[in-house]
Amino acid sequence: MYINSISFFIGVTMPTKTSSLPIYMQTAEMLIREVSSGRLIDGEKLPPERDMATDLGIAVGTLRKALDDLEDKGFLQRIQGSGNYVRHNPVAAGIYAFFRLERLDGGGLPTANILSTKRLKKPRDLPKFGQSEDGHRVRRLRLLSDLPSAIEEIWLDGKWAQTIRPADLSESLYYFYQRSLGLLISRVEDRIGVGTLPDWSPDDIGCEPGDTVGFIERWGRAADGEVVEYSRTWFNPDRVRYVARIK
Amino acid sequence: MYINSISFFIGVTMPTKTSSLPIYMQTAEMLIREVSSGRLIDGEKLPPERDMATDLGIAVGTLRKALDDLEDKGFLQRIQGSGNYVRHNPVAAGIYAFFRLERLDGGGLPTANILSTKRLKKPRDLPKFGQSEDGHRVRRLRLLSDLPSAIEEIWLDGKWAQTIRPADLSESLYYFYQRSLGLLISRVEDRIGVGTLPDWSPDDIGCEPGDTVGFIERWGRAADGEVVEYSRTWFNPDRVRYVARIK
DNA sequence: AGGAATTTGTGCGTATGTATC
DNA sequence: AGATACATACGCACAAATTCC
């Protein structure tokens, strides 16, 4: 059984045509918020597409584009003839923030502790990206189900904010980008290899500076294709691994 | 300038409604063949979507779904107001076969040497997949622009073929699946971590058995969602890295 | 077991918006 | 500024898979 479709979207921000974002993106974002916030629970069946579309005041095709997107991101399972089912696993939630690490035993709820934030001249060894001379460097400890598993160093191009304080980043970093900076990261490119843990790593991720660990380089692009963010992640391969789904 | 759209699709297999595959998939496959075979060269601009759709006898929306797919796979760059441009880099061609390794200096033409093929009982340490007790084990050496960079061990569920001979696999493995076995791998899931090089590795990939290397586990699914293939890849992180694009 | 109802998937055509040339 | 070309959105018809009675 699924929730009565009449009451389904009460209190939800409806997509509007006047917004700068296309309706299908607004709809996808809205649904992701519903799932992430727990209002839609795992295994739940959504109302039929035609009903949902009517309720939202949009065309079925537009809704379907949003649902396709959610399936790609792993939030939804779509079964022809059956229905659309919420898949609210933390990995999917993480993928929303483009987080692609999971525990070796599968899944794990991703969280982050801010280690430091600093506005700096972009160092020489950083790949070229963005327009500013400066960058915001954010260092985070990544945990999966409270187990420290990786460290991250994120560089956001300086032009997007004057300063960034740790308190701003309480939630997801990409959510902060979107909410406070009006910056929507729509595509990232990851390169995964092997590296050595840097010396600023805290000692509780299960390996020592200098140890051989997994290494992710990431380029994050805004909707217009510009690279606005570059990050490096070092992860303990005895605790987590990187996951990619390819269509 | 782009090729005259009237002559553009001469000699090409047109999508038909009677085929088992949806028109948009047929169209995407056809275009990928055109690109892979070199009939469409890098940088080339495709005719306008409306012209192409008319020539192919399909609706614009259907064609656009195929083009979206090609862009996802990296074969095409779509620029609003400008056109659709062929991007025929070897990495994209490799991605068609779901190959995701590239040289540290970028790109590289992916090839493979078959080391062995064997039908075996699936060993205990293999994850559960498929219906057969047996599996076909294919071991390959992977090269990027002729530089040995990785080794692969692929397990195809036994039910799909009686035997597989190295000569069958001269081309892409997935192409062989499709052409000879009627098996289309439509989705894969990769997990990337760190591992140790197995003892059957040839010595020219630049590291020794027992060395710490990059490690990829892959589950390959057919169109109906069934897992039909499982593989492991060990790659020399000093020569190559794994690439993922996320929307 | 089987047929009807439900629900998602595919395909078509059209109108309008927006970026590029 | 006008023309061209891709992006979004809508609505409809039918196919295919699933579910229900």
Characterise the protein shown here:
The structure is a homodimer of 247-residue chains. With 247 residues, chain A is α+β, with helices and mostly antiparallel strands. Chain A folds into two domains: 82 residues, Winged helix-like DNA-binding domain superfamily/Winged helix DNA-binding domain (Arc Repressor Mutant, subunit A, Orthogonal Bundle), CATH 1.10.10; 142 residues, Chorismate lyase-like (Chorismate lyase, 3-Layer(aba) Sandwich). In chain A, 23% of the residues lie in helices and 34% in strands. Chain A has six helices and ten strands. In chain A, a hairpin with a 2-residue loop joins strand 5 and strand 6. In chain A, helix 2 crosses helix 4 and helix 3 crosses helix 4. The N terminus of chain A is likely disordered. Chains A and B meet through strand 7, strand 8 and strand 10 of A and strand 7, strand 8 and strand 10 of B. Strand 10 of chain A pairs antiparallel with strand 7 of chain B. The first copy, chain A, binds a DNA duplex (21 and 21 nucleotides) through helix 4.
